[in-house]
Amino acid sequence: MARILIVDDEESIRKALVKYLTGLGYDVVAAADGAAALALVDQQPVDLAIVDLVMPKMDGVECIRRLKAKNSDIVAIVLTGFGTITTAVEAIKA
């Protein structure tokens, strides 16, 4: 089964995704921000990252760029409640 990384600064969303995906049998790890996510993948490689777009300190696009720099095979999914065409294009490019 794939290892999934959840990166979201909202604890309730993070916990809900972890619970749901763990229930489906996935190995799930979570981080509250981009810096924590990057440190986590240094210790535990992941196959998929589900990343919130709007987070303090490091936004989701930058987080994905840095994750991909560590492992270009990581697949990323962006979550947001604040999407625009510009950020969507930026996320796709990352």
Structure description:
The chain is of the alpha/beta class. 46% of the residues lie in helices and 21% in strands. It is built from four helices and four strands; from the N terminus they run E-H-E-H-E-H-E-H. Strands 2-1-3-4 form a four-stranded parallel sheet, sandwiched between helices. Strand 3 (48-52), helix 3 (60-70) and strand 4 form a beta-alpha-beta unit. Helix 2 (34-43) runs parallel beside helix 3 (60-70). It starts with a strand and ends with a helix. The mean pLDDT is 89.
Mean of all residue-level pLDDT scores: 89
- Please give the radius of gyration in angstroms: 12 Å
Main pleated-sheet profile: 4 strands, parallel
How many individual β-strands?
4
Strand content: 15-25%
Looking at the structure, what is the overall shape?
globular
Oligomerization state? single chain
**Fraction of helical residues:** 40-55%
Q: Provide a count of the helices.
A: 4
Please report the distance between the alpha carbons of the first and last residues.
Answer: 25 Å
Biggest sheet strand order reads 2-1-3-4
Give unreliable regions as ranges: none
What structural class results from the helix and strand content? Answer: alpha/beta
Order of helices and strands: EHEHEHEH
Overview features:
46% helix; single chain; globular; four-stranded parallel sheet; 94 residues; alpha/beta; 4 helices
Give the secondary structure arrangement, pairings included:
Blueprint: E1 3-7, H1 11-23, E2 27-31, H2 34-43, E3 48-52, H3 60-70, E4 75-79, H4 85-93
Parallel strand pairs: 1-2, 1-3, 3-4
